[in-house]
Amino acid sequence: MCGIVGYIGHREAYPIILKGLKRLEYRGYDSAGIAIYDGNDIKLSKTKGKVADLEERLEKEISTNGTLGIGHTRWATHGVPNDVNSHPHYSNSGDLVIIHNGIIENYESLKKELIKRGYTFKSDTDTEVLVNLIEDVKKKENIKLGKAVQIALNQVVGAYAIAVFDKNKPNEIVVARLGSPLAIGVGKDEFFIASDASPFIEYTKNAIYLEDEEMAIVRRHKGVKIRKIKDDSLVAPYIQELQLNLEQIEKGGYDHFMLKEIYEQPRAILDTFRGRLLSNEGIIKMAGVEDNMKKFLNANRIVVVACGTSWHAGLVSEYIFENLARIPVEVEYASEFRYRNPVINENDVVIAISQSGETADTLAAIKLAKSKGAFVFGVCNVVGSSIARETHAGAYTHAGPEIGVASTKAFTTQITVLTLIALRLARAKGTLSSSDYRHHLIELELIPDKVKIALESDAYVKTIADIYKNAKNFLYLGRGYNFPVALEGALKLKEISYIHAEGYPAAEMKHGPIALIDENMPIVVIATKKGHYEKVVSNIQEIKSRSGKIIGIVTAGDEQVKNLADHVIEVPETIECLTPLLTTIPLQLLSYHIALMLGRNVDQPRNLAKAVTVE
Ligand code: G6P
Predict the structure, then answer these.
(1) Is position 610 annotated as part of the catalytic site?
(2) Which span out of 275-284, 399-408, 415-424, 522-531 was modeled with the highest average pLDDT?
(3) pLDDT for position 247
(4) How far apart are alpha carbons 71 and 366 in whole angstroms?
(5) How far apart are CA 40 and CA 95, in angstroms?
(6) pLDDT at residue 60, as a whole number
(7) Residue 539: phi, psi to the nearest 5?
(8) Ramachandran region, residue 144 (left: φ > 0; alpha: ψ -120 to 50; beta: rest)
(9) Atom of ligand 1 nearest to the CA of 405
(10) Best mutation site among 407, 412, 494, 588 for ligand 1, i.e. most ligand atoms within 8 A of its Cβ?
């Protein structure tokens, strides 16, 4: 997955594209490049590395004030990250230049054909094959760029969001999408192209989101013409007004997006239940759930599909749905589910969880579930994302843009939405008494303030980070609702500090991980008062007698664990099902501080990307 940006209009394209690439670096950051049409020719500069590292070089090499250009920040799929494989890519004649996010699966056979026809290739990428395929079609048929793109894409198997222009027709950019996102910002006599709206939000709030299998010809003075790639039919552009503002996507005084996003959680959780949790009236109102109440109530089971951190939120929801609403739940990795011929039918409700709403495996799992007749409900953060549009109904998390690659506020807001749904269903099914239900609403409403209190542990967590930053391994243990939190804590540490960490259900420790414990092993144990407390205390005793270093996450005022553990981090008391919203906080902070102390790039850890739009 990569970030793509383009501009055509009356302003200088270079600074717009450069800034846009910086905003899209969360999508990939192993190389970057820009191509600008300078009135005569294309000026192209690209190299391995992050956009900021390349800035000087790009500026020097491009030095033009052209008003048409495209740019790309890459997460390598085909071909190692190096200068040659970076985008944009020229066609053999040098007339066409392209940027691409996605994978062309049949590129090898297409490449063989093109080689037979005399084409040569500089890079190992599938993208260079695509631009030459377009050129070949264009020359063979003697047709315009738009038509050639359409014919070429009909020969392609895979996923793409592309932008391509022809230096002989410098008044248009042709774009297309299948499986990778592409937005067109519509300004006054100017147009922006990007993987999401962040590169153009300061210039225009009007955007068109291309649907899969659509292409558009974006013309300088004439506007946007959209067609279906397969049957050539015209599509009326639907221009929507965006709610996002620039401040929301910048760091707001914090050193890193991740830290900003950790600290945003009280507000984000509040935004998640704003207008939905009406505690005075004692009700939960969620249109997507109300409109489909029958489907939920008649469901034999709920199947959750998701990846990464979203999958962990799904695991927490398994406990929540089963305990509160008494609905059986299965939680599946979307990547496994999609290739497993799963037994699923119209009596199942599938909940797809995704921060970005663009994860390729989750999207494919949704399509599979739909084809088998299941009702599919989306829980997404990014408004208008592919998953939000592909699902039958859904609920947004309203966390605001999450830029740090390590997901934080997306996780807690996903759990919040899923809790609201479970509570609403519990009420409808009568599995919670009305007083229990009210009590849950009141406790949920208190969570933002309790998250604020949990964040006060930051300075102390930093001292713990300093003690254990050089550990080679970490174990994270939790039970019940906090078992998925242990998995998430371990994932956070791995992702950004590159320290090996494993999450386990605390009682499983005896079946293997206990062999790893010695005086060099830090073990984070979630031991809140509610939920298997005594059992977890026994596990702590077992660790202690093997000299492991214990970092306990405990309920404020806990004395028992304090006496056993090497360190305890307190979180406020709440009801059991809401504890993950609090116990997660110190684990996020711990990984942040350790990564920072080790000199890691917290917001852009190696090898990862924020939105995985390839399988
Ligand atoms: C990537 C991100 C993770 C995220 C996962 C699923 O791996 O780095 O932070 O949890 O994708 O993404 P989604 O957008 O579907 O929640």
Answers:
(1) yes
(2) 415-424
(3) 65
(4) 31
(5) 11
(6) 82
(7) -60, -40
(8) beta
(9) 8
(10) 407
Contacts of 15 (CB under 8 A, 6+ apart): none
Active site residue 2: yes
Q: Report the nearest atom of ligand 1 relative to the CA of 356.
A: 14
Of the chain, the end-to-end C-alpha distance in Å amounts to 10
Q: Give residue-wise pLDDT tens across range 581-591.
A: 999 999 999 99
**Alpha helices (runs of H) in 276-376, residue ranges in sequence order:** 287-290, 293-298, 308-320, 334-337, 360-371
Q: Indicate the pairing of strand 301-306 with strand 348-354.
A: parallel
Alpha carbon nearest to ligand 1 atom 15, residue: 354
Residues with CB under 6 A from ligand 1: 307-310, 354-356, 359, 362, 405, 407, 608, 610-612
Cα-Cα-Cα-Cα dihedral sign, residues 321, 327, 333, 338: negative
CA of 454 to the centre of ligand 1 (A): 24
Residue whose tokens read 């949920």: 444
Domains and CATH numbers, the chain: 3-248 (3.60.20.10), 251-454 (3.40.50.10490), 456-615 (3.40.50.10490)
Grouping H, G, I as helix, E, B as strand and the rest as coil, residue 296 is: helix
Per-residue pLDDT tens digits for 427-484:
999 999 999 999 999 999 999 999 999 999 999 999 999 999 999 999 999 999 999 9
Which residue of 359, 383, 408, 495 sits with most ligand 1 atoms within 8 Å of its CB, as the best mutation to test the pocket? 359
Tokens linked to 522? 């830090």
